[in-house]
């Protein structure tokens, strides 16, 4: 689910759009390891809220960005358009 939130943030997707994109994009499913079962938008929202309410989200993102930085990987956010 962390990877789901990562992609969602990188592409600036709503919970509903993220659910749709996971179904539509095989690259998303492969990255997320969701071959058939995909979390619905409510599950994505609940997971993010639980992380946020405990402050865990900030710790996770700090750790992820540090790992990317250490590997020299720069991420730029974007938007998916139909």
How would you describe what is shown here?
It is a single chain. With 82 residues, the chain is mainly α. It has one domain (2-70). Helix content is 67%, strand content 0%. It starts with a helix and ends in a 12-residue tail after the last helix. The model has no long low-confidence stretch (mean pLDDT 90).
Layout: helices, strands, pairs:
Elements: H1 2-10, H2 15-24, H3 26-32, H4 41-54, H5 56-70
Please summarize the sheet with the most strands.
Answer: none
Subunit arrangement of the protein: single chain
Instruction: Report how far the terminal alpha carbons are from each other.
Output: 24 Å
The secondary-structure element order is HHHHH
Output the structural class: mainly alpha
Indicate the overall shape: globular
| Range of strand content | under 5%
Q: Give the number of domains.
A: 1
Cα radius of gyration in angstroms: 13 Å
The tally of strands reads 0
Show unreliable segments: none
User: Helicity range of the residues?
Assistant: 55-70%
Mean pLDDT: 90
Keywords:
82 residues; mainly alpha; globular; Transposase IS4 family protein; Transposase_InsH_N
Outline:
The protein is 67% helix and 0% strand. By secondary structure, the chain is mainly α.
């Amino acid at each position: 689910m962390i990877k789901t939130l990562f992609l969602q943030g990188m592409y600036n997707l709503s919970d509903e759009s993220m659910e749709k994109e996971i179904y539509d994009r095989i690259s998303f499913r492969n990255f997320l390891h969701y071959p058939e079962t995909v979390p619905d938008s409510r599950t994505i929202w609940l997971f993010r809220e639980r992380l946020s309410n405990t402050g865990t989200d900030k710790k996770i993102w700090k750790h992820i960005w540090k790992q990317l930085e250490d590997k020299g990987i720069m991420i730029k956010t974007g938007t998916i358009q139909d």
